[in-house]
Structures are given as C-alpha cells and as structure tokens.
Design brief:
Layout lengths: L2 H9 L11 H8 L4 E4 L7 E7 L5 E7 L17 E3 L2 E3 L3 H16 L7 E7 L10 H10 L6 E4 L11 E3 L1 E2 L2 E9 L3 E2 L9 H6 L22 E8 L6 E2 L2 E8 L7 H12 L4 E9 L2 E2 L5 H14 L4 E3 L7 H6 L3 E4 L13 E3 H17 L1
Parallel strand pairs: 3-6, 3-7, 7-18, 8-17
Antiparallel strand pairs: 1-2, 2-6, 4-5, 5-19, 9-16, 10-14, 10-15, 11-13, 12-14
Amino acid sequence: MEVVDLFIKLLSYKSITPDDAGSLAFVAEYLSDYEAIWHNKSGVKNLFLTKKFGEGEHLCFAGHVDVVPPGEGWHSDPFVPRIEKGKIYARGAQDMKSGVAAFVQACKETAQFRGRLSLLLTSDEEGDALYGTQYMLEHLKAIGMLPQHCIVAEPTCETRFGDAIKIGRRGSINGVLRIKGKQGHAAYPEKADNPVHSCASRLTRLAGIRLDDGDENFAPSQIVITDIRGGMEVTNVTPGELKIMFNVRNSTATTVDDVRCHIEEVFGDVEHTLELTQGSFPFVTDRDAYVVRKLGDAIEKVTGIRPKYSTAGGTSDARFMGAYGIDTIEFGVRNDTIHAPNEYTTIAEVEALYEIFYETIRRF
C-alpha cells in the first residue's frame, strides 16, 4: 500500500471524537510487526505501537485519528474522500490523518534503526482529551516506555509546505472577573453603586495588556477580553454586578500567579471575585535539540526550505509530551482548511510529508 492509499483508507473512517470507528485496529494490523499496547477508558481508545531495532534513542510519532463533526457546506460526502486536481477532500484531511498516514507508512517501511521506534495514537484530541494522550503517557511512564523524542504530525505549515516547525506551545489561562456593586434606579445614581462606572477607567489596564515582553520563542502573553456583561438589558436599572471573561495565551514567562497579581493590583480596591483556571501549560523544546535539527535537515532535503520555528496557534497534544520533559516538536501539512467545510490537502504534500518522516528516521 502506498502512503496516499493509506491516507484515503484512514479518511474513510467516520471517526468523530471520541469514536475511532475501527481505524486504530486497522493501523495495529497494518503494523503487525510492532508490539501493540492498548490503554482505553470512557469510550476513548489509545494505541501505542512500538518496535525495538537496537540499543539507542527512542523516537515516537504521535497523532490523533478523531476529527471534528463535518458541519454544513460540503460539496461531497466528508467521509468519502474526493480527489480533484491533485487535492483530496475529506474531514480530517489536514487535521490530521495526513500526518498519521505519513508516519505510519514511514515506520512500516523502516527496516533499520539504531534504537526504538513507536507510534502513539488516540481517538480523543479534538474533545476534552482527558483520557487520550495524557492518559496513555501516564501508563507509558508507569511501564518505563516514555520516549526521549517525539514528533507530533499536526498541520503546522502556513503558506508553503515545509515553512514551519512548532517547537513549543503557549499555555491557556481562562479568567472570570466579577465586579460587585449595588443595583439601583438610573434616575438616582447616588443611591446605587454602578460596577460599570467603577470598572470603566480600569479597562485600559486590563484589555490587551501584555504581561511579559516575549522572547525569541514566544510572543508576549496578553490579556484578551472575550466577554463583558452586566445589567438586565433595560435602560432604567443600573447593574449590581459586572462580569468580565478573558483569556491569556501565556508563555513560559507568565504564570497563573502573575495574572492574579496583575488583576489584584488593578481591582484590589473594589469588591470583586476572580476565578482563574489553567487549561494547558506552555512548553518549548530547545532549538538545538537533536530532533529539531534532524527534522529540519530532512525538511530542507525534501523541500529545499529551511523551516522557521514557531510556537503560535492553539493547543495540541504536544503539550502533554512537553510536560514529561520529552523533546517534542510538531510538523505536518498546511493548516489553511482545518475544521472548515471542504477540508483538503494535496497529494503532493502527503507524499512529501511521508518522505520527510522516512528521512528523519534514517538520519536518527
């Protein structure tokens, strides 16, 4: 089976989170010479395939087979791959069955390696991810099977295939700030305590404020207000409370405590409550790490492009690898149609991605 044939086969599985629709069993059978370790919970399936070729480094490829619901606006069945002018249309084409197909095929065709090769696949990355990759990593740690290096095949390229490797990810901090007041009649503002008025002059110290200066890997951590609401949607009653919701995509230079200290400094003299939750934690892999250099060299050989290093975008399962101190990077096809109707990637990109992963393995 060629990599494009494998890709089309994987796209045909209707694997909407957390249902793998049988795709993981197919991969396990396809790589039957690899040891299969299953670790499932609450309807989520996790598969770890591993093969020891010799004494040396442990390189893991990781990804997910689950996809988001297709939604409306498709020109054809999103789970019947359509090929047109070198493009393959289907849900999951970019995110991320192209990456899965590429590294599965590369591992299948590898006959020699100096250490251990493995593949970590889950059916719950697009959902809550509680029992997906992080659940499997806990198990791998317990059995002494954590890798030293990991390549997550998420779609990373921006305008040209080969133009970007993600060497880290920002964290995500969610905040809910409630400014307390006293509801009253709009005609008697002196008898009320309007939290909007208390907050108005302080918003400039909240909205868009940078909490750090950033560095060569990360943009500055910034408070982004996502919602403000208060009152009863009438014109003659002042609100008793103002609720402000915000998000901070934080670098390694800013923590939850830093966010809390800033909010308390701005709103400390007014009655308020603050809820902060860390949805994911930031991580970064050294630019000179072995896996970064080897993948970069392989990309340049296949595409002629020296990729830039990026930490932009949202979260991925790479954050769970980073938490275990694994040198983790991400590389895959372009990401311009992920989660969109008529998602597609090109045959040329899938074939080149396979070549890059195969070359990376060879260079290890």
